[in-house]
């Protein structure tokens, strides 16, 4: 039981224990999070910013609403308002072809997405050229198109089916790249198709190594020094600047050829030739 003038600020959602208190009229507050949370020193670093701002305001006005300041600091305001309407039909970019020994996590996740959509009575349309997948099993998706995962064919399916939304994140790197191309070509906007799940802007920002590094730096987080290059010679020059060993990754690629570590100029040249091929 808290004494008069004090209220709970943070409450543990698991056991309802108190993890923070705040005064109702004075600019006093404190937090104590459970060690099992594994909280890092920067998880709620913004509380120190609130404290500094409160001290500055209190010294001039003597009226400070700490709770409102904390709520404003923690509140996330999306750049674009969320569209919470539920589409009646959703297009799913499938997992595509799989090689022997290759992991099938996107096939599995895509099949689970289809089941989840059907539980919500949403019609599912799947594009997947690989007939030997769980996704394309008879009776799973409402309609399956065995077509290559390239923008031209996906646009044809969109034109024919007119889905209200599309899921890009269950098609692996091929699905992501295809979605980015369709977005840049204005296909989704042309047919009024909403991108469900991860926003396309977030996909572009995280898949492009240079843009990702810039976005991380903007929010004050640390990121490994890197350079974006467009030729083998530029890669070699960048490595000399950064210092070996270096990690080479092709943009818009989760892994595979052109990705790996290089301890010297010869190894980097081999990786760069594959990545830029």
From TrEMBL:
Q: What class of enzyme is it?
A: ligase
Q: Where is the ATP-grasp domain?
A: 213-267
CC per GO annotation? cytosol
Q: What keywords sit in the KW lines?
A: ATP-binding, Ligase, Nucleotide-binding
The record's section on Gene3D superfamilies has: 3.40.50.20, 3.40.50.880, ATP-grasp fold, B domain (3.30.470.20)
Which domain of life, per UniProt?
A: Eukaryota
List its EC numbers: 6.3.4.16
Its UniProt entry gives the catalysed reaction(s) as:
hydrogencarbonate + NH4(+) + 2 ATP = carbamoyl phosphate + 2 ADP + phosphate + 2 H(+)
The UniProt entry, under Pfam families, shows: CPSase_L_D1, CPSase_L_D2, GATase
What GO terms describe the biological role, i.e. biological process, of this protein? 'de novo' pyrimidine nucleobase biosynthetic process; citrulline biosynthetic process; glutamine metabolic process; UTP biosynthetic process
GO MF terms here are: aspartate carbamoyltransferase activity; ATP binding; carbamoyl-phosphate synthase (ammonia) activity; carbamoyl-phosphate synthase (glutamine-hydrolyzing) activity; dihydroorotase activity; metal ion binding
Protein name (Swiss-Prot/TrEMBL): carbamoyl-phosphate synthase (ammonia)
Q: Write down the species.
A: Rhadine exilis
């Amino acid at each position: 039981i808290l004494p008069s003038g004090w209220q709970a600020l943070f409450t543990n959602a698991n056991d309802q224990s108190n993890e923070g208190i705040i005064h109702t009229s004075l600019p006093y507050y404190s937090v104590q999070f459970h060690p099992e949370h594994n909280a890092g020193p920067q998880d709620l670093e913004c509380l120190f910013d609130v404290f500094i701002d409160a001290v500055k305001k209190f010294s001039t006005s003597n009226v400070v609403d700490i709770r409102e300041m904390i709520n404003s600091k923690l509140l996330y305001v999306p750049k674009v308002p969320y569209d919470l309407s539920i589409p009646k039909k959703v297009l799913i970019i499938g997992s595509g072809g799989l090689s022997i020994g290759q992991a099938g996590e996107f096939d599995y996740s895509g099949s689970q997405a289809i089941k989840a959509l059907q539980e919500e009575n949403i019609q599912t349309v799947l594009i997947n050229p690989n007939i030997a997948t769980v996704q394309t099993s008879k009776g799973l998706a409402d309609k399956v198109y065995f077509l290559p995962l390239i923008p031209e064919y996906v646009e044809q399916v969109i034109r024919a089916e007119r889905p209200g939304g599309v899921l890009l994140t269950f098609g692996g790197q091929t699905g992501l790249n295809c979605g980015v191309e369709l977005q840049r070509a204005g296909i989704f906007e042309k047919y009024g198709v909403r991108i469900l799940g991860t926003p396309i802007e977030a996909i572009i920002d995280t898949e492009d190594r240079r843009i990702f590094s810039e976005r991380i730096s903007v929010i004050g987080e640390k990121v490994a020094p890197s350079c974006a290059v467009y030729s083998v010679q530029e890669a070699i020059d960048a490595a000399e600047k950064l210092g070996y060993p270096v990690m080479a990754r092709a943009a818009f690629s989760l892994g595979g050829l052109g990705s790996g570590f290089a301890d010297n100029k010869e190894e980097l040249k081999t990786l760069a030739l594959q990545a830029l091929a």
